[in-house]
């Protein structure tokens, strides 16, 4: 709504109207000119110039932001803009002319007007923008605009009340008693009898269906309570045993034989604990293995070496904290010949059986007596007894695997994949023998050789030694499955054990039933040391703390301990730990403690502590390098 008004045209029209009315006066008297004092002098061109003014509908005098403040919103911040409410936008509309066309007129203005406002006394219509209408119209009253008066209110604080209650103290009673093994056993018997009586009562009251359902409920409740009960009973049993045999624990930790100072480098073995299992009565100790993570825990394989007395086997785990009862017991249908515990995953235990099977037990699954992995006839199990198993490093796919050797001449690698064992033949031991035919000619025939023991190199993963039944030792590699790297004419009878040295990468030791123990260098064909023990040797083991100390057991019940650094001709200790009629089968050194464990044919495991003369650590001698004579002595401690 814009209008352009020509000011000059309006002035000319007004001039013509005034000339028509007062024209006759101009001729008579002349028109008087009244000129204001502050009138601007304009030229003729400036008077002829047309000035255009544009009129818009917006009211320039209308306020743009009117703020009203509310006490309801915020009483404390009245003058804050956030607490106010803005009015409706101001209307920029003024009516210049209105006319009613019906009985119910609709005014153009937003607020209704009265007759007095529309028509004055003379009957003339007032304009909305006139001065009279502005003075007569009442403006809306703003609520408390800048006329603020402070008001305060005070609330009453509720008084605090104290409430208390008093109870009688619980009754106290002084109890004192001693607990021993017999009382613990009697408590278990009474608890079992009470459980049996409850079961008999429930059988007579309810029907068979109800009885069967309640049996399941009872079994579930018992199974839920048994883990907590067994844990508490195990802790209590350890406390009772340690209190009862406290003198043995003190000897294990603190006692040192003072007589070693007067024995001229000789030593002794101090008997500590003796371990046994009632379920393994009549069985022999066929395997021993320490746990590398929990150094007080060791595994014992139970079976028999007598071919005519084969039967079931038992896998037992003992701990030095409790010698009266094993920690874990697993029964097997065949005799256990060998055991090995994984170094990183100490809950995985590989086992070899007399019937040719290999299996893996998981100690975390205590409720299950069966192995988690076991070989079958379809999956390439051995056909003869398995004499040795060894865990290997994980393969490229991250699968755990171990190797086994058997009398059938096969060395097999077993890989744990999902729920089955996948086998891979590493090597098959065989010897070519010439056989004469009927016509008198010779014929070459390949004959399988029985393997009795093997051991993998400590640094080179693919290199390993194999002991055979014919008394030979073969150095083999996984990369050459059809070829032997080297053979040694070691013994006259079967090689019972062959083991690499823990510190020297080129030295290994072997023992046999021909009464000898031999120390070898893998680069030589003849042994470095030969020791005759005057009895068949059952097992030999290197010490984990010294490269020159090893121990062996013989079938006459004697333990032999050697230290090549002190004496290269005879043992520092020869001590009988069982009766002469009992045969010792295996021996193992503890990884950190100065003790050894010895197993016999009766199923007992005896722990022995080495005296100070038997566990001396050799001094580290520097190697002289002629090219760098000074640096070779500086980099090694004397």
Automatic annotation (TrEMBL):
WD repeats lie at residues 488-521. Coiled coil: none annotated. InterPro entries: Dynein_IC, WD40/YVTN_repeat-like_dom_sf, WD40_repeat_dom_sf, WD40_rpt. Residues 129-141 have a biased composition (Basic and acidic residues). GO terms for molecular function: dynein heavy chain binding; dynein light chain binding. PANTHER family: DYNEIN AXONEMAL INTERMEDIATE CHAIN 1, DYNEIN INTERMEDIATE CHAIN. This is Dynein axonemal intermediate chain 1. It comes from Takifugu rubripes. The lineage of its organism: Eukaryota, Metazoa, Chordata, Craniata, Vertebrata.
